Known about the structure:
Number of strands: 12
Structural class: alpha/beta
Distance between the termini: 13 Å
Bound molecules: zinc ion
Strand content: 15-25%
Strand order of the largest sheet: 6-4-3-2-1-12-9-8
Helix content: 40-55%
Shape: globular
Order of helices and strands: EHEHEHEEHEEHEHHHEEEHEH
Amino acid sequence: MAGLFFGTGGTPHSAKAKSTIAGIERIAELGLGCMEIEFVQGVKMGEASARLVAETATREGVRLSAHAPYFINFNAHEPEKIRASQDRLLQTARIASLCNAESVVFHAAFYLGDSPDKAYATVKKYLAETLNRLRRENNRVWIRPEIMGKPSGFGTLEEILDLCTELERVAPCLDFAHWHARTGGLNSYQEFASILQQVKERLGKAALDNMHIHVSGIAYGKKGEIKHLNLKESDFQYTELLKALKDYDTKGLVICESPDLEEDALLLQETYNTLLKAG
Ligand SMILES: [Zn+2]
């Protein structure tokens, strides 16, 4: 019934084992709906395992996404680092596709002192090459650059929405905790609603029907994000966010990245369901 599915960034802590398959089984046991497979330290899963992951997810009714390695910078100044970044995103998308994951989330770039305009042009150029390659391979995974939590990281809301309008098969990963930390504000119903309104205006209602969201509590300072926190230990107004998501009839996956992964994912899901019942 609900348009939103809630789950964890990585295998839940209470899973029987650390494996992705144990994670999917635990998500189903907990009554959650999705999980993001974390390839943040590298793609170490083989093709046979990926097929088993897909079977398990289908059997358990759990929707999947994947997070690409952190070591990606589509604005790197050395050509070999650009190639390595493209390879890491390709590898993630290929394995994600075998896992039946719907989306690949990635941190697109760092400015490295470049102007935002210059960085944008570079990221767009090299990302377009990677997307062409995936298209030739018939890979249908959504590629989702994430809103970043530090001013040094490429990925403001506007940059991400620009990439989504200019490149095919690219959709946003809205990390509301990152945007809150990066701006030091953006933590009210009105502001959450205005982000969703911008998505709707720039990408159309279809984008709200196919959304991918990261949420956690967050500690932040002048340089943006410091670390993730549990929701109740942070100032993040998650109930207000959930109200805005409900009012905009947003559909898709909400991935919780709090230290207490599944506890906060369940908190988000329960809060959302209570809002739905209240009408
Ligand atoms: Zn991320």
